[in-house]
Amino acid sequence: MMAAKTTLRAADLPDNLHGLRSAIEQAVPHGMSPKTRNHKGRDVGSWNNPPPPVDAAWARLKGEFDEICRKYPKLRGTNNYKHLGTLGSGNHFVEVCLDEEGFVWVMLHSGSRGVGNAIGTHFIELARQDMRRHQVSLPDQDLAYLEEGTEHYDDYVEAVGWAQKFARINREVMMHNVIRAMREVIPLAFETHVEAVNCHHNYVQKEKHFGKDVFVTRKGAVSAREGELGIIPGSMGAKSFIVRGKGNPESFNSCSHGAGRVMSRTEAKRRFTKADVERATQGVESRKDEGVIDEIPMAYKDIDAVMHAQRDLVEVVHTLKQIVCVKG
Fold this sequence. Notes:
Shape: globular
Helix content: 25-40%
Mean pLDDT: 95
Low-confidence stretches: none
Largest sheet: 8 strands, mixed
Order of helices and strands: EHHHEEHHEEEEEEEHHEHE
Distance between the termini: 15 Å
Number of domains: 1
């Protein structure tokens, strides 16, 4: 997640926000072609010819990636360079929001894209191979693990660290391009990154808890150390929150990263219609077609209830209400 406050106020925005959404959609590749769901080939959500900011950002990543690919050549053929600065699909989004004082924020959600998925998939298979090689009996192959001190373990720690770096830079590039698109639509001069947060979720990090050095995997969670800023988004059409962590040790200094689903995508598509999406996202400039039914707000938990349940983990700094939402 990344969020940045601007000096713009609600009154500075155009009355019709469709042009702003269109400009953002043109500035940030988004979505995914059905044929690429097996992570092969270029998809509509990648660059055809990456612009100079993507080239500059990739230069910060290329050396480490080349070293990873030297050991694991299969990863070179993944979507990597051309996915940098792109959104993806599913619950990834770019939003323009208003805070409680009417200031305009830009908020976006995306991660390590195709290459991050490929790294995870590749090392999961290596872990399964290691289990078979060492004749480790597991009740389920999905419990396969990489043993500390082995080559694959060390290589995975290196590769996942790189993927998380990719994710952070990916968000920075997208934010740069979104702000540039906004400047093309909004004739007023304005400043950005007045307050900015760029935080991982669904990631792993080495930390110290209860006197021990451990790896903390935050799945559906974000770091909430004392004083640390974080982002907790609601669903499409709901509100989101900029929060400050309270550093609760019982949660390993963590909080939830969002509302969370109450039903599967398949169930949401079965239960709701395009008309339901239109009603649920009234007042938000966004897609309202069949392709986003699985992201309808009713498929997610009530964000207010989620925030109340974790009041001992974070305090709310800003409440954001989206007025433009771009989905993949």
